[in-house]
Structure formats: C-alpha cells, structure tokens
Amino acid sequence: MKSLRTFLKDKDKKVVKTRRIVFGTLSVLIVLSVILFINMYKAILYSNVLIPNGEKVSLYISSEDDFDNVKEKLYSKDIIINQKRFEWLAKKLDYPQYIKSGHYIITDGMNNNRLLNLLRSGSQTPVDITFNNIRTIEQLAGRIAEQIDTDSISIINAIKENPTLKEMGFDNESYAALFIPNTYELYWNIDANELIERMVLEYNRFWNDERKNKAESVGLSPIEVSILASIVDKETVKVSEMPRIAGVYLNRINKRWLLQADPTLVFAIGDFEIKRVLDVHKEIESPYNTYKYIGLPPGPICIPSIAAIDAVLNAEKHKYFYFCAKDDMSGYHVFAKNMTQHNINAEKYRRALNKNKIWK
Predict the structure, then answer these.
(1) pTM
(2) Averaged over 140-168, what is the pLDDT?
(3) Residue 14 to residues 1, 9, 25: CA-CA distances in angstroms?
(4) Domains of the chain and any CATH numbers
C-alpha cells in the first residue's frame, strides 16, 4: 500500500502533466488563432490589388455575368495578387449571389474587403459616350452599343417604339434629329429605353427658348432646322462658312426653288464614298432627291453637328443663291448671286476635278 507521501507525489505529477497538456493545447490554439487571424487579416484587409504605376483599371460586369465570368475578367487584367484569398472572402460575403452589373473603377492598393464592397454595392462609375459623324440611325445604334451594355437592335426598337417621340413630331425619317452630338455621362448598364429618355431630356435642354425662337424666325421647326443643318454639315467642314451656306439654302426655300443639294443625292444613293455627283445621279427616284422635289427632304441625311444647327439658326443674310467648291481644292466655297457667275465657278471646279482625276 502506497504511503501518503507517495500518493501526493504521484498526484502532483499528474497535475503537472495535466497542466502541461492544457498549456500545450492552449499554446497550439493560440498559435493557430494567430495564424488564422493573420490569414483573415490578409484576406480581408491586406492589400490585394497591384496596378503598375498606380493607374486605375476599369472592370465591366454585364447583366449576364456570373461569378466565374467576373473572376475571368478580373484575373485577365493580372492585378489580383492572391486569387484564393479574394475568392474566399467573396464567398464569405455571398458575392456570387449578389453580382451587380456596371462599370467599376479599381485602384491600386485596394484590399479584398474594399473591392468586394464596391462590387456588391453596385457603386459603379459613369462612362462618357460620344457620337459624331453619323449617317443613319442604324449606324448611331451601333456606335452607342459599342460604348454601353446594350445591343444596337434594342436601341433601334426603343427609338421606334417610344410614344413620346411620336408626340414630339418624329417619324421613321426624322428620328436622327433627336440626337445632339456631344459627350454624355451615362451608366454603362443603362438600358435602351432609359437611353432614349435621356436623349429626350438632352434634346429638350438643347432646344431652349432662344433656339426655338430663332428657328421660328427663319420659318423652320426644330426638326426642319436639323434637316437643313445635316445638309450644311455635308456641304462643308469649314465651320466659318456654314452660316453663309445655310443662308443660300434659306434663300432658295423662301423662293420655293429646288435646293439642288448634292449631299442629298449621295444619301439617296446610299454610297457615301461618292466624291463627284454626276447628271445620272440627279435622275434617281427618291424623296431625298432635291433636284426633283422642292423643299427639304423628309429627314436628316446625317446627325447634324451643333455647329451646323447653330449656323442655320444664325444664318447669314445675303443675296447669294449659288455656291460651288473652290478650284484650289481647299474645301472652301465661292458664292454667286446669279447663274452666269455660278456656271463660271462650277466650270473651274470641274476642271480641277478632272486634273486630279476624280471621276466619281
């Protein structure tokens, strides 16, 4: 039988052993906790975006994208340092179930938490869309569709099916007059109907009382101003002479003469590469043939620039009824008050075309 001293000694050994096990276990748990904390810290708050030169990167997320698509787009930019940490936190925050489309700006040094909060919140950055030198609504829709997350067919349908446009006096031939070439700040994921609503807003803002009064003073509606402006736009690239050219056409309209505008024939033919209008072109049957039909064509032959619109509204008052491109091929024009002088100018230009071997 063990003595009391031996019993107590054995008990102390067990206590010490137990304490060692407890302390050892606690130490392991503490180390594991520290490691876990460090890993969580790195996954959540540690910088995980590296962009050379500190530049900003755009990420476009479509309404059809899932988490795999987002990862593919993000990783293709080669800016995420640790993809596993990003994916771990994304799943912890349920981001794969809350993907929001849009245009997002990613900056150097962002941590996963900040990046994912940006994407989850839908706090996208607007984009600037521009369009100019556009001939047709189809071309316009294509140009805009390249800049936002909407296809061109949806844009065309939104134009043609919008009841407000019909109430404003637009039709299939004049829809182009709605669009004012400029730079517009829009959300990348704007849908086609919202886009047209925005363009209506911009149109009404552009056609303020001052411009409407000027249109009335020259005897044209805003849509008619845009139609004439589109002709002016295609007659010259020289902004300085646009008001004078506009004045020539207004003189012809007021006299009820044929406009005889070559650019309308080019539009009617549909070959926008034509550089020389021939007599055969003047025989084409089209409401856009201003050699056959008096007055303005039924719609713009392009989306007119603001400069051309304002040139019509501020047309120069003069007695010129004719103009012709200068024979020095400078892009400027010479103006005439009568047919005799115009024929002289036109013959000089024809010789210049022949000399430069421009036959069509």
Answers:
(1) 0.84
(2) 96
(3) 19, 9, 16
(4) 52-121 (3.30.1490.480), 127-206 (no CATH), 219-355 (no CATH)
